Amino acid sequence: MANPGINQSQKQVQGLVLTPQLRQSLRILQVPAAELLREIADEMAANPLLEEVEPASAESMETAPSEEPEEEGPRELSLGDEDFDALRRMKEDWDESYYEEIRSQGYTQDDEERRRHMLESVTGESSLSEHLAEQARTASEDPQVQEALKLLIASLDDRGFLDEDLSAIALRSGQSYEAVVTAHTLLLGFDPVGIGARDLRECFLAQLRQRGRGLSFAARLVLDAWEPLMARRLEECGRICELTPDEVRDGLTEMAKLETAPARRFMRDDNRVVTPDATVEKADDGSWKVGMDDRHIPKLKLASAYKDMLAGQALGEKERTYILERMRQGKFLIGAIEERQRTVERLAHIIVERQGDFFEHGPAQLRPLTMTDVAKEMGVHETTVGRAAANKWMLTPHGLREFRWFFTSGVATEDGGTVAQEGVQELIADILARENPAAPLADEAITVELRKRGIQIARRTVAKYREALGQPAAHMRRRRL
Known about the structure:
By secondary structure, the protein is α+β, with helices and mostly antiparallel strands. The protein has a domain at 410-477: Arc Repressor Mutant, subunit A, CATH 1.10.10.60. The chain has helices at residues 20-30, 33-46, 55-63, 81-103, 109-121, 128-136, 143-154, 166-173, 177-188, 200-210, 217-224, 226-230, 234-241, 245-255, 304-311, 317-354, 356-361, 371-378, 382-389, 421-434, 443-452, 459-468, 474-477, and strands at 50-52, 278-282, 288-292, 300-302, 393-396, 399-402, 410-412, 418-420. Strands 3-2-5-6 form a four-stranded mixed β-sheet, with helices on one face. Strand 5 (393-396) and strand 6 (399-402) form a beta hairpin. Helix 1 crosses helix 19 (382-389), helix 10 packs antiparallel against helix 11 and helix 20 packs across helix 22. The N and C termini lie far apart (88 Å).
């Protein structure tokens, strides 16, 4: 009989390890220009061998050969393009090995779609999906409920709401409806409270119950008088809930303290100065030209004085080792910055090529595009595309756009094609701008108008896009003429 106690054993396995240089390369590829400047400044402060090339001499440095042949230094300094190629191959092998290992453990197509959703929708350092997944691990011991929780987390929109009915989610995924309902009830109590709500009403109720205010004036208003409350018919709210005007005001005061977007703290902060990494302009021949703005990224070089010190005989072994290590680190940094710029430029050219209709006609003509498609065209792993697109901006004839904005799923059209979600939102905005303010269009009417234009879309999706545009429901848009 086997010993049930704790035993020690040794085994030899082969795996990939992220070296410090590779971690630095991945970080440099992903950070925005402002953070890259700080990264470079920190490296220059820590590495005395790095110095900035003066702008006047930067161009001549690129075209003219080095005055001092590389061979004059020690052989240990040889670190060329093949080293950086090996570094890139190591990164891509690590990515591929990671996902191959996951697939060998029962990775399904649904898992792949959820992973792609998380990859293409990450907006900041903190991930809402990871935060919720950590809570989900201990929320239930039922495997079906665990799977349903993962599914619901992957279905959340940017605000933290579910844009799909629970029954539809259960049918689409093959999960039991009971497990999905149980998982949804648990999810509403996760931090942040109200996450996973199907509408603002459910979000408010979840927050009030969590605070022990399920019987308060605010809860009664939300539960029994939601429609007149949204229309600001306060007298009617008071009659329905049997509340005095002062009690209605107290309920409104409490409601004003509730969160309207549970995922707000995980959203990207757009209140910042943005420096475009690429600028797209029309050339004289009518084609679109991509220009990379790298003026804000200093060009670096290794100080020649330290090469002279290495070539001499006055250094001890400790000083010599220190200089060699700093020189290797400096060369890797310079190579990583150059690789970052090349990758971002290639990505910008592909975006311009694949989204030509957008640059010609505007957001309504944006086409569906996935990172998987672009990764195949670039010949890299899609995680590389995700890092290259993160925190990068493009100045276009239609405004400043984040690279990730160009990656979007589509809505089917009658002719068998697809239109990007942003394009549909643009059409909805146009419909709302033309409506009669005295008789605004309900979501069902907007859906009919879109179908007349060949867009096959559900009413609930129209409501989601309308809310994303900051437009309230029809009864709240009504204006007296």
